[in-house]
Design brief:
single chain, 2 helices, about 60 residues, mainly alpha
């Protein structure tokens, strides 16, 4: 599935969350989507989390 189709589905799901849950439902869907993206990107290697653990500039 291409990135544009994935983005389309994500937008549609956020619209449904906004309709059903109001603004709070929209924000919850947005935050959970971001967390899911971060986990997926970290697992596939697109996001390198080692820079957060290295403590750059210390010692």
């Amino acid at each position: 599935m291409s990135g544009s189709v994935t983005g389309l589905f994500a937008g549609l799901l956020l619209a449904v969350a906004a309709l059903v849950g109001g603004f709070n439902g929209f924000l919850l869907a947005l935050v959970l989507g971001l967390v899911g993206w971060l986990i997926g990107a970290a697992l596939t290697g697109e996001l390198n989390l080692e820079s957060f653990r290295s403590g750059r500039g210390r010692g």
